[in-house]
Design brief:
Elements: H1 3-6, E1 37-41, E2 44-53, E3 56-57, H2 58-61, H3 67-74, E4 83-84, E5 87-95, E6 98-102, H4 117-123, E7 133-135, H5 141-144, E8 160-164, H6 165-172, H7 174-179, H8 185-198, E9 202-205, E10 210-212, E11 215-219, E12 228-234, E13 237-243, H9 251-254, H10 266-283, E14 286-289, E15 297-302, E16 307-311
Parallel strand pairs: 6-7, 7-8, 8-9, 13-14
Antiparallel strand pairs: 1-2, 2-5, 3-4, 5-6, 10-11, 11-12, 12-13, 14-15, 15-16
Length: 312
């Protein structure tokens, strides 16, 4: 019997039952129109598509901070203090004859305000069958669940799907399912069912590996046990597709030592975040944040107390 059947959850209803991350107690926000952004990167082109946005309650995002601490930080940036509505930015790399997607969005079975990627690709006249490579940062729903179509078949049927080996092993483990709190078991069930469906397409990634020409895998574990970010190199320039290792363009930069409720290992997440911010501030590489305000592209600047995100 599959894990999905064991928990009497299909791919269409794995979110049933109060997940913290989905913020199901909150009213579903309306969709917001987001233009796509492209820029040349040497001989390559990078396009950032929006998959929509999430709604996350603040006591989940920042579980250890007081209301006063949260208000002092976020009010100065005209940000709400009760919940965040982070964008979901999916990166497409055109390089030679390759069309490479970094993560695939949520699909139709997560929050109602996400799942827009397929429509955005269609508007750009990109057929999912034309995608040559899918490179995953990790297996949370808003990054992985869009790997299947509405019939639960692989959407990117012709693509090699590159998965961090530690991430694959973690989510497929029976021990992970048994040890996960009930409110998040559907994350594991959802990851397992999707990994089962794409298994024949999967190639494993190890830290430091050149996944594709000019694309280097960077170990950024903490958010999840096998979380990987990807540095795209072009001569002396580089762009880091950071996934969720740096998750917010204000909180992560100004308070990198604050615990993030979405990190599975909070302290490792903090250490990884600080390491990346320091590296990016020193070497000047551009980064693309999955959950930064669309399009999420910019650079890290060091300040007297921490860091700041410079859009561009």
């Amino acid at each position: 019997m599959s894990e999905t059947n064991r928990f009497q959850m299909s791919r269409r209803n794995v979110l049933a039952g109060g997940l913290a991350l989905t913020a199901t107690a909150l009213a579903g926000p309306t969709r917001r129109a987001v233009a796509e952004t492209s820029f040349a990167f040497g001989d390559h082109e990078i396009t950032i598509f929006s998959d929509g946005h999430l709604t996350l309650p603040m006591n989940f995002v920042l579980p250890e901070q007081s209301e006063d601490e949260v208000a002092a930080l976020l009010s100065a940036h005209n940000m709400p203090t009760d919940a965040l509505t982070p964008d979901c930015n999916v990166t497409l790399l055109r390089s030679g004859d390759r069309l490479v997607l970094f993560d695939v969005g949520s699909g139709s079975n997560f929050q109602s305000s996400v799942g827009e990627l397929v429509g955005k690709l269609e508007e750009a006249e990109i057929d999912p069958a034309d995608i040559t490579d899918v490179v995953l940062t990790h297996a949370h729903p808003d990054h992985l669940w869009g790997i299947l179509d509405e019939f639960d078949d692989p959407l990117y049927s012709e693509a090699n799907v590159w998965v961090p080996e530690a991430e694959w092993n973690y989510w497929r483990s029976d021990e992970t399912l048994a040890g996960t709190p009930d409110e998040r078991k559907s994350f594991v069930v959802g990851a397992q069912s999707r990994f089962d469906a794409i298994e024949e397409q999967v190639s494993m990634i190890k830290p430091g590996q050149e996944v594709l020409p000019g694309v280097e895998a960077i170990d950024t574990a903490g958010h999840t046990p096998g979380h990987m970010s990807y540095m795209i190199h072009n001569g002396s320039e580089s762009v880091l597709v950071v996934g969720d290792a740096i998750s917010n363009s204000v909180i992560s930069f100004e308070k990198p030592g604050w615990v993030s409720g979405s990190d599975q290992d909070a302290q490792q997440g903090i250490a990884t975040r600080k390491m990346l911010l320091d590296r990016l501030a020193r070497d000047g590489s551009r980064l693309i944040g999955y959950h930064f305000p669309h399009p999420g592209s910019g650079r890290v600047e060091k300040t007297s107390s921490a860091y700041r995100f410079a859009v561009g």
